[in-house]
Amino acid sequence: MKLSPEAAQTYDQKRLAHHPPVPVARHFWRAFWVGGLISTVGQFFLSYFEKKGLMPDQAAIPTAAVLVVLGALLTGLGLYDRIASYGGMGAALPITGFANSMVAPAMEFRRDGWVMGVGARLFQVAGPVFVFGTLASLFVGSLWYLFYGGFTG
Amino acid sequence: MTTFRFESRPSLLSMATVAGPDEAKGPLGEKFDQVVPDLWVGQKSWEQAEQELLARAGQTLLVKENLTAADVDLMVGGDLLDQLVTTHFASRTLDIPTFGMFSACATLTASLAVAAMAVDAGYGQKVLVTVASHHHAAERQYRYPVELGIQKPATAQWTATGAAAFLIGKGGPVVVREATPGRVVDYGVKDPFDMGGAMAPAARDTLLRHLQDTGRTVKDYDAIFTGDLAAVGSTLFRDLLKEEGVQVEGIHHDCGLILYDRSSQKAVQAGGSGAACSGLVTAAHIIPGLLSGEWRRVLLLATGALHSPTTYRQGESIPCIAHGVVLERAEAP
User: Fold this and answer.
1) By residue range, what is the domain housing residue B165?
2) Contact B267 A85 (CB under 8 A)
3) Is residue A150's pLDDT more than 90?
4) B148 and A105: CB-CB below 8 Å?
5) Which helix (H) or strand (E) holds B94?
């Protein structure tokens, strides 16, 4: 049997009343310090590359590369999923989280072969971010072009 | 009237379990026949690992009873993976005629019921019932790659790793007395991270129909075990029954809450699930309790969520099912 949508709504309220409260303050705190720690590591490398003579916008590129390698390494060692299950968005949002979202499917689907496994599934998680990120930038770029009539200045 | 009563008293002759590392750390850890140290089980993929668990459980049982595959008339069992690959692939090595069963995490009681029907009707002398699940194989199929960093809500459940095998025949110490097949019940829940909440109405439906069919009350049972409603689904189940004037407080237990120690095994969140969850708890906790005399008659209500990743993505709600089986100690009247 399938409940009518109205009855299902009544049941949903009953069901949700049994859910434990979401520990919002704890989630915020954990996301804050885990995300902050990852960002501090990033800042360390950014300052290092600047000290080595790179301009700030140039120094961001090797910094991102180092963080991606670190994220990939921690995923490969089986640690990043634990960090993220603790730190939530604090671990998912930085670029190390992006590395995790690429390496995790690569590891998982390696057994399905290089082409139909890794090749086909590599972007399983990150794919939607690329698609909608590109679309959003296209949309914003079009607005900019319409209102300011160009991309320079 | 949809409750079957098996007059010729088909019963449990033997059983065997193989459990994963997290299950071994739980309260029942000492009671499994075999424990594997890691989720690979010496194999190259999670799917192969799950097949190995099942093959080992089946072989352990055959060795225990000094039987060969030719002595077993039928194997009835299932798992969670698409096309029941675990059951069918493991059956290649066990070499017993096989009926693959799918009722998600309710597969144990569906299979026990079919095995008891076969034995009761005289079609088989010895019927093997098997269930298996593997945490990582289920994660990969139903959710995300294992190494992906995901924060799951507290209502999420943990798919048990392990396999259980039961041999049903005649003259054993625990009798499969009755079976009540479940109806598919859909209360419109769409959240795959709250399967207990989705399955609780199915468990209530089967329990109420079972009581009506048998003319009993819940007081006629020493214990009622649901399969894997876990923390959220269990309290919801008891509340839903209270609305119907049925009080199961004190006699209701849930396999998903027995398999792990949630206070020290935080990763399991609301509790266990998976086809192996009720299988491992039945073999390591319920049957021993019946044998030791702790209980005389128990109702086992394994619960299953029947969605697939495809139906979830297409916005469908989660249909659920619960099959009931009554287990009694043999000397009971």
Assistant:
1) 4-170
2) yes
3) no
4) yes
5) helix B85-94
- Write out pLDDT tens, residues A33-81: 999 999 999 999 999 999 999 998 899 999 999 999 999 999 999 999 9
CB distance B148–A8 less than 8 Å?
no
Half-sphere exposure at residue B32, Cβ-oriented, CA atoms within 13 angstroms:
31
B231 interaction partners in chain A (CB closer than 8 Å): 20
Domain match, B274 and B145 both: no
Mean predicted confidence (pLDDT) in B294-319: 97
**Domain of residue B203, CATH code:** 3.40.47.40
B261 alpha-carbon distance from chain centroid: 18
Tokens of A16: 């949700």
Q: Which residue has the higher pLDDT, A149 or B52?
A: B52
Residue A6 near chain B (CB below 8 Å): no
Same domain, B300 and B187: yes
Among B119, B149, B170, where does a domain finish?
Answer: B170
Closest among B161, B204, B206 to B181, alpha carbons compared? B206
CA-nearest residue to B149 within chain A is A81
Q: How far apart are CA B330 and CA B172, in angstroms?
A: 7
Scan for tokens 């095995």, then name that residue: B115
pLDDT at A152: 64
Report which of B200, B202, B193, B87 is spatially closest to residue B134, judged by C-alpha positions. B87
Tens digit of each residue's pLDDT (9 = 90 or more) over A69-114: 999 999 999 999 999 999 999 999 999 999 999 999 999 999 999 9
CA distance B149 to chain A (A): 4
- In this structure, are B166 and B178 located in the same domain? no
CA distance linking residue B78 with residue B81, whole number of Å: 9
User: What gap in Å lies between CA B303 and CA B206, rounded to an integer?
Assistant: 10
The string of pLDDT tens digits covering residues B276-291 is 999 999 999 999 999 9
Q: Average the pLDDT over B13-33 and give the result.
A: 98
CA separation for the pair A22, A37 (Å, rounded): 24
DSSP state of B186: B
| Residue of B2, B85, B148 for testing the chain A interface, max A β-carbons within 10 Å | B148
Contact B239 A91 (CB under 8 A): no
B113 and B196 share a domain? no
Map chain A to HEC letters: CECCHHHHHHHHHHHHHCCCCCCHHHHHHHHHHHHHHHHHHHHHHHHHHHHCCCCHHHHHHHHHHHHHHHHHHHHHCCCHHHHHHHHCHHHHCCHHHHHHHHHHHHHHHHHHCHHHHHHHHCCCCCHHHHHHHHHHHHHHHHHHHHHHCCCCC
Decide which of B112, B140, B170 is a domain's last residue.
B170
| Domain identity same for B291 and B229 | yes
State how many domains chain B has. Answer: 2
